[in-house]
Amino acid sequence: IERTFSIIKPDATKRNLTGAINAVFEEAGLRIVAQKRILMTTAQAQEFYAVHKERPFYGELVEFMTSAPVVVQVLEGENAVAKHREVMGATNPAEAAEGTIRKKFALSVGENSVHGSDSAENAAIEIAQFFAGMEIVG
Ligand code: GTP
Ligand code: MG
């Protein structure tokens, strides 16, 4: 059993899509073992996206992620990292497969409704940034 870190991004929380997105996760066999709605601080967003610091869209990305509430989550299941990325779809909604969250809901490559860890190793780092061990109940 594996865990991954998920964020329902501001474009999605603003459009009241938290439940619709969670339904896709649960349908895919991913269990929500921790979840909270937060307004990310600039410092939190900068740290979270530090790997993208040199990219041209970094400033825009940090601004977007702090512009409205997000829902941070820990999802658990068989191959949770890969399964989660599969149901999210490609980063750019124009390239996302039919039926994926980003195909259905994303507005653009930036405002793309969800985040998912890209490896189990990064998932552990990202989970630790937002959750205390006691907040995760499997
Ligand atoms: P995450 O699950 O959010 O990490 O998405 P990803 O792994 O599919 O994409 P990546 O890690 O390459 O980029 C992280 C995030 O930066 C994306 O989800 C987008 O929100 C944003 N992003 C990526 N490329 C662009 C871009 O060209 N323009 C803008 N504005 N944002 C971008
Ligand atoms: Mg990524």
From TrEMBL:
One of its GO terms (molecular function) is metal ion binding. Its cofactor is Mg(2+). SMART domains: NDK. Keywords: ATP-binding, Cytoplasm, Kinase, Magnesium, Metal-binding, Nucleotide metabolism, Nucleotide-binding, Phosphoprotein, Transferase. It catalyses: a 2'-deoxyribonucleoside 5'-diphosphate + ATP = a 2'-deoxyribonucleoside 5'-triphosphate + ADP; a ribonucleoside 5'-diphosphate + ATP = a ribonucleoside 5'-triphosphate + ADP. InterPro entries: NDK-like_dom (IPR034907), NDK-like_dom_sf (IPR036850), Nucleoside_diP_kinase (IPR001564). It is an enzyme of class 2 (transferase). ATP binds at K9, F57, R85, T91, R102, N112. GO terms for biological process: CTP biosynthetic process; GTP biosynthetic process; UTP biosynthetic process. Coiled coil: none annotated. GO terms for cellular component: cytoplasm. Gene3D superfamilies: Nucleoside diphosphate kinase-like domain. Its EC number is 2.7.4.6. The active site is at H115. It is found in: Cytoplasm. Residues 1-138 form the Nucleoside diphosphate kinase-like domain. It comes from the Bacteria. Belongs to the NDK family. Major role in the synthesis of nucleoside triphosphates other than ATP. The ATP gamma phosphate is transferred to the NDP beta phosphate via a ping-pong mechanism, using a phosphorylated active-site intermediate. Homotetramer. This is Nucleoside diphosphate kinase. It comes from Saliniramus fredricksonii.
